Amino acid sequence: MDLQTVGTILLQVLVGGLSLGVLYAIVALGYTMVYGVLQLINFAHSEVFITGGIVAYLVFDALKNSGTNGYIKLLLACLAAMVVSGALNVLIERLAYRPLRGAQRLVPLITAIGVSLILQDLLRFLVGLRGQFDLSVPLPTEFAQSITKVAGVDLSALNLQVKDIILIVVAALMLVGLNLLVNRTQLGRAIRAVAHDRQTSGLMGIDSNRIISLTFLIGGALGGLGGVMFAMKYQALNAYSGTVPGLKAFTAAVLGGIGNIPGAVLGGLVLGWLETLLGVISLFGSLPGLHWLSAVKAEYKDIGAFLALILILFLKPAGLLGKATTEKV
């Protein structure tokens, strides 16, 4: 393997990892928004996320022969998925979490796992009404086109497709929008106030129940948007497809510092690049002194990613951008 080949592989890892990482980041932000306000890990977020993907499938499938522009289809899919997933997340908060708000932390955590399992089977039942288990997303053909040259620069070696660029652009716009919402609006200030001290914010006239519901709405909408991007990227999904990506997105949120918005993005990018690198690292086994890398198969990339998480949390328990806190008891 020559240096040019090594450089090409590393560029592919950079681009592929960025595409995967921003997907994790979008979903991780849903975990982070909820945790920041309630200190609750919403394990049902994986199902909220994949619900968005299923809604995207339904929109793309309904419009596949309509002659509608592909970008209009994508916009409609995003809007529908964000509305449905956001509403589902609000419903979960209202029925499952709000009645347990004063309970010990373990109670809502177990409830979240139970809600996750219920939603998985409910989604399987609803998808099964179409006589299907696995859904093949009829993606507009323009999204699958390869990008081989930009401004005269040959990019054919990167295996870059239009849908990868869309994913990165959507993630960037979403991150900017969320940052403006949280830091520059009255709602954002209210969210930060409730996250800091719910009781004191209530004394200041802030309706904490309303703010928490809106936070779940935003988190669910982000999850739904992530589901659309997942459906677009992989073009196949089922009722259980959200479990592993959702767990990885949660890992990304913890990696960056749970409750920290920039941390969720950083954690997603780190996890995406690491996972992509581990998927091709065996190719470097032909280099002098690196023969042992040939034994690291692509199937082990998930193990490597979680081992890296354990190592980073061992060194920085609060995550990459999280702040360590102490509690007096």
Description:
The protein has 329 residues and is mainly α. It has one domain (3-315). 67% of the residues lie in helices and 2% in strands. The chain has helices at residues 3-38, 45-62, 70-97, 106-128, 162-184, 186-196, 198-203, 208-234, 243-256, 261-280, 301-315; strands at residues 135-136, 149-150, 153-154, 236-237. Strands 1-4 form a two-stranded antiparallel ribbon. The protein has a two-stranded antiparallel ribbon with strand order 2-3. Helix 5 (162-184) packs across helix 6 (186-196). It is globular, with a radius of gyration of 21 Å. It is found in: Cell membrane.
Q: Can you give keywords for this protein?
A:
single chain; 329 residues; mainly alpha; two-stranded antiparallel ribbon; two-stranded antiparallel sheet; 4 strands; globular; L-leucine transmembrane transporter activity; L-isoleucine transmembrane transporter activity; transmembrane; Amino acid/amide ABC transporter membrane protein 1, HAAT family; membrane
